[in-house]
Write a structure and sequence with these properties.
heterodimer; A: alpha+beta; Rossmann fold; 11-stranded mixed β-sheet; 7 helices; 11 strands; elongated; B: mainly alpha
Chain lengths: ~300, ~400
């Protein structure tokens, strides 16, 4: 009996395999899950950005903050535990009351990984961003033409496509497309914007049929967040491995601040130097005058 | 805002000190080591052991790229590897990153560590792929040679060069290992067979510069360029999505949770309203100010006119007096002069309206304004008047605003 059952089940599984194989060959699926987490000591603004991205990307999984002391390689294990194949890690570094944010994008567990410096952050909470979209709708990804020019930019594009592109397999997605995420490469930086797609409905189109100066059928309204990424390095592995690209134009923010400080210091020291000089000059002049006065003293003249 | 422009220009000036230090460090290292290349020292693997390893592996274990590099390394023996600078460049980064950097440097030149992977790739992809790889490698090697030749850092050289070139030497070294990048990209790339609906990625047909973002610091044109790029993506994505049999636009009656909460949207709406009303208010205030200005101008003009007329009159009187001449003349015919004066002032007008017909006859005036008779209680109500039906004013006086506006 049991052997019979076994044979039957085997047959069934074989059939299942055949069935599942046939459509699989036809339909290749893009399966992505992103682990989103930050280092300890992240400021509220950066936390809000994380929340915004999570709201926009339904295929993300949030994890607790990790201490800055743990090595970044452990992130791969965390990703494995959460069954994620992408990691978006927000790393903060404090320098005298200023917190810099670095964004890591990595393919777990085999890499590659990229480290960016994140600047010019505007979160969704800002009232100037008036757009809105469905929570969980899949965003269209828009890349600038520049992303096809260099191999490293191609790599970045692929990485963005995989982390920011919401796969069809995601459970929390909603139908319809009402927002677009754009990545543009300009001035050695990557600019991120997200817009709501506002389409005119049929009635307004009809109403404007005769009108000459009708507004375009599709318009965009910014949703937010917006930020600028400066690529720093691309590593072959996930959070490690050899560097395959390093940005020659990147200056660490600490260095920039140091230079600014030095400039200020130089200004100050220059001022102090000239002050000292003029003081000395005045002293010399008064000395000389006193010498003259000594010669022309009344007591001497009318001796 | 990005500061790269200004900072870039400042690098050379401000980095000099630091770079000098870097160079000194490197030179010190050189003196201590006095060996071939620094990269092996980082790994903790001596040259001897490396050579042993190579022997054990034999030439079969290496592909074309590795062989090239081996030959190249032999050639360079004695001279220094410039990649060390790279590490020193970022010395203000945190330890962790430095660690990574060191790791990176170890195989920054794509040495034997990567070879195994390369080999696998080659076997998998067949002969055609190998050729491609080799071409890439050649390119890469020539690039590397160029890179190395730009910074032969021996002790004498370092003393000879001036500070600017030293700064250049240390800042120039960067990694951009194109062949490795393409290999990695091919490794983790999504299949090309994936239909568009899976990825939804659209690449713009125009560069961002063509879209109008010439100057990064011009916020408006830059944002407009981003907008255009996104819009193009949407317009291109829509037909493809529809082709895949997936609905694109959200119907009006589809309600679901939104990214921004209703509270947030209400705030946004409120802000927009506030802004709008502020603009309107300021516009109104501006208009009012302008009106006031105009009103003042009119007033001024009127005053000037009055003054002018007064002046004219005085002038006329004076000129008449002068015409008449002498004090005697004045005394003699005082009345004559007055009449003349009046005539002059009246100009071409007819003389006094004595002869003119009165507006109303005496009787009419008496009837209207009353003359004689009982004065008291004339206006008080009588029995008849109270009983009489009320006749409203035929023409009611218009409101103040109308009266003012009509002027």
């Amino acid at each position: 009996m049991s052997t019979k059952l076994k044979a039957l089940s085997k047959k069934r599984t074989a059939e299942d395999d055949n069935d599942s194989n046939a459509p699989q060959a036809k339909k290749v699926q893009n399966k992505q899950r992103v682990l989103v987490l930050s280092s300890r000591g992240v400021t509220e603004r950066y936390r809000h950005l994380m929340n915004d991205l999570q709201a926009l990307l339904p295929h993300t999984k949030k994890d607790s903050k990790i201490s800055s002391k743990t090595s970044l390689a452990t992130l791969n294990e965390l990703a494995d535990l959460a069954s994620c194949n992408n990691i978006m890690f927000f790393e903060t570094k404090h320098h005298a009351q200023i917190t810099d944010l670095y964004l890591w994008l990595a393919k777990a567990p085999n890499g590659p990984s990229v480290k960016f410096h994140l600047q010019n952050l505007h979160t969704m909470d800002e009232l100037k961003m008036t757009g809105n979209c469905l929570k969980g709708s899949r965003g269209i990804l828009s890349f600038g033409e520049e992303f096809d020019s260099e191999p490293w930019l191609q790599l970045l594009k692929e990485l963005f496509t995989q982390t920011f592109g919401v796969p069809t397999s995601s459970r929390r997605i909603k139908p319809f497309f009402d927002h677009v995420l754009s990545f543009s490469y300009l001035d050695g930086k990557i600019w991120f914007r997200s817009h709501q797609i506002v389409e005119k409905d049929a009635t307004t189109i009809k109403a404007e049929l005769g009108n000459k100066n009708k507004s375009p059928a599709t318009t965009l309204v910014e949703i937010g967040p917006r930020f600028v990424l400066t690529p720093i390095r691309i590593f072959e592995g996930s959070f490690g491995g050899p560097t395959v690209f390093s940005n020659p134009e990147f200056l660490p923010p600490t260095k920039i601040r140091k230079m600014e400080r030095e400039e200020k210091a130089e200004k100050y020291s220059n001022r102090k130097d000239t002050q000292e000089e003029s003081k000395q000059r005045k002293k010399d002049i008064s000395k000389r005058d006193r010498g003259l006065a000594g010669e022309l003293e009344t007591a001497k003249v009318f001796a | 805002m990005p500061k790269s422009k200004s900072t870039k220009s400042n690098i050379k000036d401000n980095k000099d000190n630091k770079d000098n230090k870097n160079i000194k460090n490197i030179l010190k290292q050189d003196e201590l080591e006095d060996s071939s290349s620094g990269e092996e020292d980082f790994d903790g693997v001596s040259e001897e052991s490396m050579q042993k390893l190579i022997k054990v592996l034999g030439e079969d274990g290496l592909d074309q790229q590795a062989l090239d590099q081996l030959a190249y390394l032999n050639q360079l023996e004695g001279s220094q590897n410039g990649d060390d600078n790279d590490d020193d460049d970022d010395d203000d980064q945190e330890d962790q990153e430095d660690l990574v950097d060191n790791e990176a440097l170890v195989s920054g030149d794509d040495n034997s560590e990567d070879d195994d992977e390369d080999e696998e790739d080659d076997q998998e992809d067949g002969a055609g792929f190998i050729n491609d790889e080799e071409e890439d490698d050649d390119e890469e090697n020539s690039e590397e040679e160029e890179d190395e030749s730009t910074h032969p850092l021996t002790l004498e050289d370092a003393q000879d060069v001036d500070e600017d070139t030293r700064a250049q030497i240390t800042t120039k070294v960067t990694v951009n290992n194109k062949s490795a990048i393409t290999r990695i990209l091919n490794d983790f790339k999504l299949s090309d067979k994936l239909p568009f609906i899976e990825t939804l990625a659209v690449t713009s047909s125009k560069s961002i510069k063509d879209l109008g973002a010439e100057d990064v610091y011009d916020d408006l044109s830059r944002e407009l360029a981003f907008y255009k790029q996104s819009l193009e993506a949407v317009e291109r994505a829509k037909p493809q999505v529809l082709k895949a049999g997936v609905p694109f636009s959200r119907p009006n009656d589809f309600f679901a949770e939104m990214v921004k909460t209703d509270v947030q949207m209400e705030k946004i709406r409120q802000k927009m309203m506030d802004e709008k009303s502020n603009i309107e208010a300021s516009e109104k205030a501006r208009k009012q100010r302008e009106l006031k200005k105009v009103g003042k101008k009119v007033q001024n003009e009127k005053m000037m006119e009055r003054q002018q007329s007064k002046k004219d009159m005085i002038d006329k009187v004076k000129s008449l007096k002068r015409k008449k001449g002498g004090v005697d003349g004045l005394e003699a015919g005082d009345d004559d002069f007055d009449i003349q004066l009046e005539d002059a002032l009246e100009g071409g007008k007819e003389g006094k309206d004595d002869n003119k017909k009165r507006k109303m006859s005496r009787g009419a005036r008496d009837a209207k304004f009353g003359h004689g008779g009982k004065k008291k209680h004339a206006k008080s109500n009588t029995k008849d008047s109270t009983n009489a039906p009320f006749k409203g004013n035929k023409k009611s006086r218009p409101g103040k605003s109308k009266r003012i506006g009509g002027k």
